[in-house]
Write a structure and sequence with these properties.
Elements lengths: L7 E5 L3 H12 L4 E5 L2 H6 L7 E5 L8 H10 L6 E5 L4 H9 L4 E4 L4 H32 L4 H11 L4 H8 L3 H15 L4 H11 L7
Parallel strand pairs: 1-2, 1-3, 3-4, 4-5
Helix pairs in contact: 5-9, 6-8, 6-9, 7-8
């Protein structure tokens, strides 16, 4: 298994024995671990969104694992979720996976299987964070544009010509050229494909800041 010293596994399980056995196993892999005995405790911790994943039980007193997943989804949390439960059903697993869970494992699970799932979750977390960082950079670039330049940009990425944009906005062809030039300069885009990429990235999911 890859070593992920800068990742943390957040274990949310009401069973003390399960929490500590998982902690011991993961610490042997030099993985940081934080333990929570309930979904409510995890949510109340107000943890900063960081690199890692969540391992949660399905059935817990109070908020269950699926409800926790739903809340984190609304918060646009970048921590992938692995369900580890002794009471799973096919409908539960289908619902969890459809909502974005990395895997739905049934206790007892082999060490090899769990570590493989955690590795996949860490990889997924890195991808999500990279996408969000790109989106933030793109949004930062677009804040430099005026309202009219944003309008021109929207038409440019749709593939409209300067004449077509001018007709839509009721301005001259020359004015569109000026706005288009300003957009390229302010965003640092060297060509249309790069400009499209910036526009697309800026519309990616937005996480809490």
């Amino acid at each position: 298994m890859k070593k992920f010293n800068d990742f943390t596994v957040f274990i949310v399980d009401d069973d003390t024995a399960v929490r500590h056995s998982l902690m011991l196993m993961l610490k042997q892999q030099t993985i940081n671990v934080q333990l929570f005995e309930s979904a409510e405790q995890f949510l109340e911790s107000n943890l900063p969104y960081q690199k890692g994943c969540i391992i949660t039980d399905l059935q817990m007193p109070g908020m269950d694992g699926l409800q926790l997943q739903e809340v984190l989804g609304r918060k646009e949390c970048t921590l992938p979720i692995i369900f580890l439960t002794g009471h799973g059903t096919i409908p539960h697993s289908v619902k969890a996976i459809k909502a974005g869970a990395v895997d739905f494992l049934t206790k007892p699970v082999t060490r090899k299987k769990l570590l493989a799932c955690i590795t996949s979750a860490f990889d997924e977390c890195e991808k999500l964070l990279e996408a969000e960082n790109s989106a933030r950079r793109a949004r930062s670039l677009l804040t430099k544009l005026t309202g009219r330049e944003r309008e021109v940009l929207a038409f440019v990425v749709q593939g409209l010509s300067n004449k077509e944009i001018a007709a839509h906005l009721g301005i001259s062809h020359r004015t569109v050229e000026i706005h288009r030039s300003n957009v390229m300069q302010k965003t640092g885009a060297m060509h249309l494909l790069e400009l499209k990429k910036i526009a697309q990235e800026s519309n990616q999911h937005k996480l809490p800041h």
